[in-house]
Amino acid sequence: MQAFTRLDGRAAPLSLANIDTDQIIPKQFLKTVEREGLAKGLFYDFRFDGDGNEIADFVLNRPEYKGSSVLIAGDNFGCGSSREHAPWALMDFGILCVISTSFADIFNNNCFNNGLLPVVLKPEEVAQLMDEAKGGNHMVSVDLATQTVVSPSGRSFRFEIDPVRKDKMLKGLDAIGETLMHASDIDLYESKRALDRPWLEA
For the chain, which residues make up each domain, given as ranges? Predict the structure, then answer.
């Protein structure tokens, strides 16, 4: 998993509340366990019409928001089913941070497990970011070390995060990476077990 330290990028405002995981990545795109290639399905029913043509006025299709790496979302983002493909699709599209007033628990956990940073801010702060992102300047900064989001106008908002999750994100540690930090202890245990119970190695 790639470490998340500081992100300076374009922010796209998606003011809809209760965006569920089926809207983030519809079920027809869940036939793979690969993390790449899912960008095409992200917000598919919002981005494309019935003939597969881009819907021009959807925020992520608008020229000024192309290449956005931060999504400013409405309340209760990521509700619905537990599909891990949702953060995979967001990241494959290039979105590395989602800012909202609240996230569904399972989606929130899946984000941290995959290196996508979910940031919770106060309603008035999210509203401020939404308004500014709709203006001419869409650039924001998200600094995990200082736990701050800086708006296009330079306003700074502080967010809270579990210190253990923060440390893992800063170091780029997923569950496998965290386990591998104890590789020498695991090897020592396996060596001792092979000596004590050789029949298990047969």
Answer: 6-171
| Domain 6-171 is found in CATH 3.90.1310.10 | no
How far does Cα 11 stand from its chain's mean position? 14
Q: Enumerate the β-bridge partners of residue 139.
A: 10
Stated as kind and residue range, the H or E segment containing 186 is helix 183-196
Question: Do residues 91 and 114 lie in contact, with contact meaning Cβ atoms separated by under 8 Å?
Answer: yes
* Token pair 């400013």 in the structure block, residue: 72
* C-alpha to C-alpha distance for 129 and 123, rounded to whole angstroms: 10
pLDDT in tens, 114-167: 999 999 999 999 999 999 999 888 999 999 999 999 999 999 999 999 999 999
Structural contact between residues 116 and 92, judged by C-beta atoms closer than 8 angstroms: no
- Residue 157 near residue 99 (C-beta atoms within 8 A): no
- For residue 185, give the 3-state DSSP assignment: helix
